[in-house]
């Protein structure tokens, strides 16, 4: 009886161990895919913000830049973006005219309203227009802080490392014209470098061989004037 009990206990342990091994073998790709998606989304948020800064840089300086130092520091520290400001000339408005009821085109023609170009800080303007969103610890959407903008250059994973996105910019010829282009990207081999090596290799092979896409995340393109992201 005692020997039979021991055998039953051993068999029970073996069954539990096999169940754990089976569970882990099933959950391993699930956990990988969940982590893969989380890292993709974190990259997407940063790449979208970098694209927003590049578009503001182009609007301000007439071209894109391949330097994070120029992209971030110039936009943060220079009042260089031209915007059109509307000025109401109250001294030219007759007492019997309600400027709020006057069509804007008519008000401009009669001199009640004039427009003038002013220079503003690009980052301040982007924040004002709610174009630098991020999610805070409470789940609310807020505008990025200066520190978060300064850290946009760094790939969000693996944590603790300081890998930078690859940022490039140039002028290319299209239909006889020179047009500005930029590209910002990170390969999966960098983004997933602390994850299971074989699963990373399999994911890269799946993307490159099956779909023919770039095995990583990026916005823009150095061969054509587009600013789309391959995560969109």
Describe this entry's structure for a reader.
With 232 residues, the protein is of the alpha+beta class. The chain has a domain at 42-77 and 137-232. It contains seven helices and seven strands, in the order H-H-E-H-E-H-E-E-H-E-E-H-H-E. It has helices at residues 2-61, 68-77, 104-109, 122-128, 146-150, 188-191, 197-211; strands spanning 81-88, 113-120, 133-135, 141-143, 166-174, 177-187, 216-220. The protein has a three-stranded antiparallel sheet with strand order 5-6-7. The chain has a two-stranded antiparallel sheet with strand order 1-2. A hairpin with a 5-residue loop joins strand 3 (133-135) and strand 4. The chain starts with a helix and ends in a 12-residue tail after the last strand. The model has no long low-confidence stretch (mean pLDDT 89).
Question: Would you tell me the overall average pLDDT?
Answer: 89
Order of helices and strands: HHEHEHEEHEEHHE
User: How far from one another are the termini?
Assistant: 66 Å
Per the principal axes of the C-alpha atoms, what is the gross shape?
elongated
Q: Report the radius of gyration as a whole number of Å.
A: 28 Å
Biggest β-sheet: count, sense, barrel?
A: 3 strands, antiparallel
Helical content class: 40-55%
Tally of separate helices: 7
Low-confidence parts lasting 5 or more residues at pLDDT below 50? none
Structural class: alpha+beta
Strands side by side in the biggest sheet: 5-6-7
Number of strands: 7
Q: Please indicate the percent range of residues in DSSP E strands (runs of 2 or more).
A: 15-25%
